Amino acid sequence: MESRQLAAQLHRLALLEDGNDIVPVRQQRMLRVLDARPGLMLKDLATALGMTEPSCTRMLDRAIEAGFAAKERHPDNGQAISITLTADGSRALQQVTNALAVRLRAVVRAGGPDVGQVHPLIEQLTHLADRLGAP
Fold first, then answer.
1. Whole-prediction pTM value?
2. How many domains does the chain have?
């Protein structure tokens, strides 16, 4: 199995095991985008997520209801609405990221891949952890 495929499988496994009680899997990506690009307009958020605007609106409404995101007037265009991650959303995202990092470490330590795949996998997981800001 290619190391990228293995890393993707480990990521999916971690998402299934931990963090879903904090933030549903589908919303986790939205929160990561909002964290990286605060102040996006809905159409830009939908594009970043590869979703239609109506689907993105429904997901965003659930995130707002949970207190993870907020809408506000766009600073450069008073008619437009920008979307930001709230402090609660940031905390929830950090909890999910930490749970993911812990789970990935446990899976890797359990001996998953063949010896020849360990080095590339560790590089990819390290890169993923760096991007996620994991401890």
1. 0.67
2. 1
